Amino acid sequence: MAMAKRLDGKVAIITGGASGIGASTVHLFHEHGAKVVIADVQDNLGQAIADKLGKNVSYIHCDVTNEDDICNLIDTTVAKHGQLDIMYNNAGIVDNPSPVGRILDTKKSDLERTISVNLVGSFLGAKHAARVMIPQRKGCILFTSSAASAIAGISSHAYAASKWAIVGVAKGLAAELGQYGIRVNCVSPFGVLGTGMTLPMSEEDMYKAEFALSNLVGNLKGQVLKAEDVARAALYLASDEANYISGLNLLVDGGYSVVNPNMENILSASMG
Q1: C-alpha pair distances (Å), 131 with each of 71, 86, 167
Q2: In three state form, how does the secondary structure of the chain look?
Q3: Going by DSSP bridges, is the β-strand pair 182-189/249-252 parallel, antiparallel, or unpaired?
Q4: Which of 48, 79, 73 lies closest to 61 in space, CA to CA?
Q5: Does the annotation count 146 as an active-site position?
Q6: What's the farthest any 2 CA atoms get from each other in the chain?
Q7: I need a labelling partner for 209 at 20 to 30 A (CA). Which of 86, 129, 191, 266 fits?
Q8: pLDDT for the residue numbered 198
Q9: Ribosomal protein: present as a keyword of the record (predicted)?
Q10: Which of 146, 155, 188, 257 is catalytic?
Q11: Least trusted range by pLDDT, from 76-90, 135-149, 209-223
């Protein structure tokens, strides 16, 4: 029996679509019938995915911090496909190779660059998507935020500030754009291995990191968060199955942000 295609007839833009969560989402949205436009600055990677997936997937060079690039991305997509149903503002960077950048070690330039890509880039994508979605009186705007928007101490301050702000923008837009039938939501993942956000690893290091995330760091034991898991959350929010969901920050974190392990650790130690 053929799989039901949840995005049949829809046109989607995915920023940061050449690698990591973005690339997984491109493949999944395409598999579910969407016409997908990959927007990225990684031209070789983005074009290779478009060439591999065929006629319903295209690549456009886009630096999300450049409003002219964003305008061109939106206008080219609408000129080609006649509509825009899903704008997934996923492009993002980390400002520091260290998982937790201390404030005294954070340069102003790092802060500004992180906010420029993560927040300003997402804001501009949403702004120009809204420009074409409002006359359509329908559409879905998505953002990639982070579990750092729900729990402190798991990222640098610059990264957390940018991702908290994205949630604020999404909630404000959900309030503003609902009158036009436009839904706005966030997907907020815990640490995802094998994305452009993490440093390159050998197979052995990847195995060690997966073991650590599954058994030591993560809350949901026996599971490791993959880019495909985040893509599936985005697919749900982009699909008509979520037709009355707006203003949601969907945490894909295995319950990490709702658990404080201190009491459990104390009890385990005392009973041990």
Answers
A1: 10, 13, 20
A2: CCCCCCCCCCEEEEECCCCHHHHHHHHHHHHCCCEEEEEECCHHHHHHHHHHHCCCEEEEECCCCCHHHHHHHHHHHHHHHCCCCEEEECCCCCCCCCCCCCHHHCCHHHHHHHHHHHHHHHHHHHHHHHHHHHHHCCEEEEEECCHHHCCCCCCCHHHHHHHHHHHHHHHHHHHHHHHHCEEEEEEEECCCCCCCCCCCCCHHHHHHHHHHHHHHHCCCCCCCCCHHHHHHHHHHHHCHHHCCCCCCEEEECCCHHHCCCHHHHHHHHHHC
A3: parallel
A4: 73
A5: yes
A6: 66
A7: 266
A8: 46
A9: no
A10: 146
A11: 209-223
Q: What gap in Å lies between CA 66 and CA 59, rounded to an integer?
A: 17
pLDDT surpassing 60 at residue 143: yes
pTM higher than 0.90, yes or no? yes
Q: Output the six-digit token pair for 47.
A: 């074009």
Residue 197 confidence (pLDDT): 47
159 catalytic per annotation: yes
Residue 4 tokens read as 């039901």
Average pLDDT over residues 192-201: 55
Going by C-alpha positions, the residue among 179, 196, 180, 171 that lies closest to residue 250 is: 171
Of 59, 149, 156, 163, which is the active-site residue? 163
> 155 or 28, which is more confident?
28
pLDDT for residue 269: 76
- Written as six digits, the tokens of 202 are 């050998």
- One-letter amino acid of 130: A
Strand order in the sheet with 57-61: 57-61, 35-40, 11-15, 86-89, 139-144, 182-189, 249-252
Is the CB of residue 124 less than 8 Å from the CB of residue 64? yes
Can you tell me the distance from the alpha carbon of 166 to that of 134, in angstroms, rounded to the nearest whole number? 20
Tokens coding 27: 């493949």
**Which amino acid is present at 234?**
A
